[in-house]
Amino acid sequence: MRYYIYQIQFNDFAGKTCLVSAPNSCDPLLFDDNLIETKAIVFEQAKAINNDQDVTVFTDSIIDIPQIEYAEITNLE
After folding, report:
1. DSSP character string of 18-72
2. Mean per-residue pLDDT pooled into runs of 10, the chain (77 residues)
3. What is the pTM of this model?
């Protein structure tokens, strides 16, 4: 399994710096499809934070994390 956090950073409608992230896991062979779904979740959350406006200017990153950290973040112990 691959455990990761996808995150974006952007300035919201008021100029405040925001960071939105979501943890996820998947079979490494399914990562590309899984990442598309994770990105959709993050961008929907960012839109809600951004006064219901799409976020178009951002920086993003994918951070691989150990399974134990994923379990702690998602409370799946």
Report:
1. EEEEEEEEE-GGGHHHHHHHHHHHHHHHHHHHTTT----S-EEEEEE--HHHHHH
2. 98 96 97 98 97 97 97 80
3. 0.91
